[in-house]
Every structure is written in structure tokens, then in C-alpha cells.
Amino acid sequence: MKAIKKMIRIIKQHPILWIVGILGYPVTTLVARLIYAYGFELYVEKLEDKSITIKHIALLLGFVFVGLLIANLLEYITAFLIKQFRLSARTNIQQEIYNKLQNGPISKTSIYDNGEALTRYNTDSDLAAAMVTDDVVLSIYPIIVGLGYIASIILVNIYIGIMVLIIGILIIFFNKYFVKYHKKLNRMHLDGEADFMNLYQNTVRGKMSIRLINAEKKISSKLQDKAEHLKSVEDKMGRMESYKIITLDLFSYICSTLMIPVACLFSAWGYISIPEVILITQLCKDIVIHISGFGWAVSNFKSHEISLDRVLDIMDIEDENNGIKPSLHNENEPLLKYENVRLLYGEKCVLDNISLEFSKGEIVMFSGQSGCGKSSLIKALLGFVDYNGRILYKGVNIKDFSIQELRKEVAYVPERADMFEGTVLDNILYGDFDATREQIVDALSKAAIHKELDIDYEVGTEGMNLSGGQKQRVAIARSLLKEASVIVLDEPTAALDSVSEKIILETLKELKNQGKCVIAITHRESTLAIADRIINI
Ligand SMILES: Nc1ncnc2c1ncn2[C@@H]1O[C@H](COP(=O)(O)OP(=O)(O)OP(=O)(O)O)[C@@H](O)[C@H]1O
């Protein structure tokens, strides 16, 4: 029941396509088989009253042929529909995962960075889509077709019908053990894959550091260990499938074969005719194969459910708050106020009982021991770290208005700024796509970058063609275009020479004179010198 509730999230995307695709295949197969059984029954009647003619045989063949042709055509169409649904479900899941990772709160989404995000995006979304489509079709198919057959056999001979039912229940019971084991293995496999991808990506990015510390062999053996762990889980999965074939399938075949002598016995006792023996044994074989197929489908269904859970973990994250727009500044209120703020990473408290005020037209700098929580304190303002207590902007609790609107008011230059594929100009324009050429040139010169870099210079993937200090200054130029009221800079001068630092400090003073509130984190004495207030954390 729980699984169905979870599946509905995905099915809701195209319910009609799903229903027709899921039901079409087993229903058309059943109809085709029933047409065949009906034709066979008519044939037996004619045989029994010895009135069979070539015309009857031709009619039977024609009847069966047309029936099967129509059924196959419908089967083909429904199989096509379910395939379409599966592909669109996978794409929709992937899009939702991507959007959630972009729009969900950073404090909740960052645990899915790297390999974990990739595994959930690729493997889990595919298996989750397979669960709501192929696994459901393969589970429903034997139920509908098997029950239809059992009903027909019960109609022909109630004792044989009940025997088949008992065998079916035994097979399903037997399969329970495999379901549990399959599920456990699948979880191990997905965790192992994410773990492997995490290390793999991490080492590809960090290849320079790895060479510098001569750790190639160590890292490569670590990666090898993880790959071997994955392989051993895959081996176990393969072995489980083999055990299943030699136990469950063998059991099913023995049962279906045993039905032939049983039906003959019933015939010898005069309960059923010879043609009925043929019909029953043929149907019994079919039923037992279907029931065993049901066992396989349930195993897959249950183990793929883990993937559905893993994609729902991400899909259920709520977007960042989209509350009201900020109200006008009440001149009596400080521009920004922290009230008894307690910063949290999950259960871990980083800073407690922080109360601070910031006004327009001032430069406030934070300094303090590494790891004491300076960056986290300003990240809370931007919604990147969870906290208790209140942060007020223009007198309004920031949790009450849209985080996107708030971010328009606050420009943030992190310690390690992200660069995106494209030119210096492309990267700066993220601050304001409508900026004029004069504004861009002005921002570049205030960020002390205009003499060094041409605006059409390609920054490369993740800014690999720029130095650390250049990246920082491009990020400062980007933030200057934003025209924000609060400018927050994390170690803005740490990677700069004294000439560039001087230009940046002049820019900060200019921002202050324009009535902006400048907040910076720094350890550098020369930078601290221009602060109106220094707060030691
Ligand atoms: N995503 C995270 N999850 C859990 N703990 C974190 C996370 N990010 C930071 N921390 C912890 O929070 C504490 C404060 O980190 P923060 O980066 O705010 O310190 P900082 O004062 O800015 O340090 P530095 O001067 O070295 O940059 C540290 O103990 C760090 O281990």
C-alpha cells in the first residue's frame, strides 16, 4: 500500500498513458487465450458428437488466427505506450531532481552533491521509472492471466483448479525469501555505487594534489577496493539469480509437469475427456510459469522500490521560501539585526546566542579563529545554513519574505567563488544581465581587474584559466553590478597583492559612502584597518 502511494507521485504525470499501458498487455493476452480456449472448446464439442468437418477445422483456425492477430496488435500498442510512459517518467524524475538540487535549501541539498547526486540522477531515476512501469506490468500480467486461467480450469475441473491454486500459493510463499535478499543486495549496490562515484569524482578533481603528495597508488587502491566491493555485490546478485532459477523455477517446472499425470488420472476415472486433459495440462504449464514470473516481478518491484525512495528523498524537499517581498526600511530599525541566533548543521551547533546589528553606511569586519563560524554566520543570512533565533532585515524576519528577494538585496562574494563556462564578461553579467558597457567597465576597474583581463577572455571550466585572486576579483565585479544594499565578502583580499588590495579597499569605502552596508571576513591587518567596527568571534 505504501509503495502504491509513493508510485502515485510518478504516475500522476500521465495517468491515462500509464493505465492503458499497464492493463492493456495482460488483458489482451488473456482475451487472446480465452478466444483460443473457446475455439478449442467448440472443436472438442464437434469431435465428441463426431460431426467434425474440414470446414469446422478451417473455421477454428481462422477464428484463432484473427483473435491472436488482434490481440498481438493491441499488445504491441500497449507495450509501446508503457515504454513511452517509462521514458517520460524517467525524464520527469531527472528534471525534478535537478530542479530540487537547484531550488531546495542548500542545507538540505548539499548532502546529495557529487557521486550521490549522479547515482540518484542516473541509476535511481531509471530503476524508479522501471518499477512503476515494467515491474508493475510484469506483476499484474501473471495475476490477471493466471487468475483467468485458474477460473477456466476450475470451471472444467474444480479439483485440478484448487491444486493449481495451492501450488501457486506455495511458489509465492517460497519467493518471499528471495524478495528480502534481493532488496538488501540492491540497497548495498546503490550505496556502493554512490560511494564509488564520490571518491572517483573527488580524485579526478584533485588529481594535482594527489600527484603532489605522491598518493596515486594509495588513492587508486582505495578506488579499487570500492570497485571490488561493488563487484562482489553484483556477484552476489548474480548468484542469487542462479539459486532462484534452480530452486524456484525448477520447483515451478516440476509442479507443472506433475499436472500431466494428475489430469490423465482424472481422465482415467472418467471425470474429464482426453481433449480436456490436453487443454488443462497446457494451461497448467502456463499458469505455473506465470506464477513463477510473478515471483521474479515482485522481487524486482521490491528492490527497485529502494530507488523510488531515494529519488523521493530529493523530490520531497520543499523549495526555498517564496514569501513576501521586503517592506520599506523603517529608519529607526537597523538595516540588519541578528537576535539570539544559534547556527546549526543538523544536530551540530556551531555558534550560539549571537546578537548583532548592522547599519547603512558602515563597514563591519569579522575576525576570529579558523573554524569558529564566521562564514556560517553570514551564510545563515543567505539561507545556506539553518539557524534558530531571528535575523531581521529592515525590521522584518527574513524567514517571512522571499529568499530570492532577499538575495537581490544582499551581494555575497564567497571565499572560493564559482566561475561558469564562458568569458569574463559572461561571468560578470550574472550580477545584472541589463548592465551597460560603462557599468561593466566601472565594475571591472573597481574590482582591480580591468588592466589584467580582457572582458572576452575565456575563463574555462570552473574558471581553470584564472588565478585564485583573479577569480575572486571577477566575483567582486559581479557583485558590484548587483546594486545590493548589503555587500558581504568572505576573505576578499586574502589572495591579492598590495596594489590590488588597495583598489578593493577604496571600492569598499566608496560603497560605504553610497550608504551601503559592507560586511567582510578577514584576518589581514591592512584590510581590518578600514573597518568602522571589528567583531571578534
Ligand atoms: N556543511 C557543514 N556541515 C557540518 N559542519 C560544517 C559544515 N560547514 C562548516 N561546518 C563546521 O562549522 C564550523 C564553522 O565553519 P565556518 O566555515 O563557518 O568557519 P570559519 O570561521 O569561517 O572558518 P575559516 O576562517 O577557516 O574559513 C566548523 O567547525 C566546520 O567544521
Automatic annotation (TrEMBL):
The protein's organism comes out as Vallitalea guaymasensis
ABC transmembrane type-1 domain mapped to chain residues: 60-303
> SUPFAM superfamilies, alphabetically?
ABC transporter transmembrane region (SSF90123), P-loop containing nucleoside triphosphate hydrolases (SSF52540)
- Indicate the principal place this protein occupies in or around the cell: membrane
Where, subcellularly, is it found? Answer: Cell membrane
Q: Which GO terms describe its molecular function?
A: ABC-type transporter activity; ATP binding; ATP hydrolysis activity; ATPase-coupled lipid transmembrane transporter activity
Start and end residues of each ABC transporter domain:
336-537
> What GO cellular component entries does it have?
plasma membrane
- Residues passing through the membrane, by range: 16-36, 56-82, 127-152, 158-179, 250-272
Superkingdom of the source species: Bacteria
What this protein is called in its record is: ABC transporter ATP-binding protein
Query: Which keywords does this Swiss-Prot/TrEMBL entry list?
Result: ATP-binding, Membrane, Nucleotide-binding, Transmembrane, Transmembrane helix
- Tell me which InterPro entries the record gives: AAA+_ATPase (IPR003593), ABC1_TM_dom (IPR011527), ABC1_TM_sf (IPR036640), ABC_transporter-like_ATP-bd (IPR003439), ABC_transporter-like_CS (IPR017871), P-loop_NTPase (IPR027417), Type_1_exporter (IPR039421)
Q: Which PROSITE patterns match?
A: ABC_TM1F (PS50929), ABC_TRANSPORTER_1 (PS00211), ABC_TRANSPORTER_2 (PS50893)
* Topology in membrane: Multi-pass membrane protein
